[in-house]
Amino acid sequence: MSTQTSDLLAAAAPRTVEVVRGISDDQLDLPTPCSDYVVRDLLNHLFQVVVNFQDLAQKRQVDWAEKPDYLGDGWRDRFEAETGRLVAAWSDPSSVEGMSPRMPMPQTAIGGMALLDLTVHGWDLAVATGQPYHPAPQVVTELRGLVEQLGPTARKMGVFADPLPTPTPTPDLIPNLTPDLTHLLTQTGRTPTWPQTP
To answer: Residue 117 sits in a domain of what CATH number?
Structure first.
């Protein structure tokens, strides 16, 4: 059994898991495109997203105020296991039915938020640690529409920065970025040429 949301999460997850597995312990204090987060902070945030959105798939309450440290022994294996549980949670058809009881939006949009974090933070972590990153094209296409839908509210809440002009990706300027991914990053306030000056 699966849903469109779980299919997209299943396409996105292995690519981000590969990036997470490629992060060495001596890279945990490096800066990231999320200016408030070093790699360690962003990993903990993404871990919390992956765990909490399992509960949101079942319309249960989650606690975002608590900030656990997930980076204990075997954290790379645990991250992969939790992403598998995330996909499974959203494969239940009831997970995408109706409105979220916790947020004023459809459950499909809640699942899209998990997909967005998994994908965009996968890019954040990849560029912060010097790794390649190639998100699934169908995921990026889906997320472009979601960001257009959620963007105004997300910017008011400080989740997204203001959108930036979208440069034309060229191998020398922005290697490994498609036009769709470049547009997605700029619409969430990211500089595709990070850490270079735009």
So the answer is: 1.20.120.450
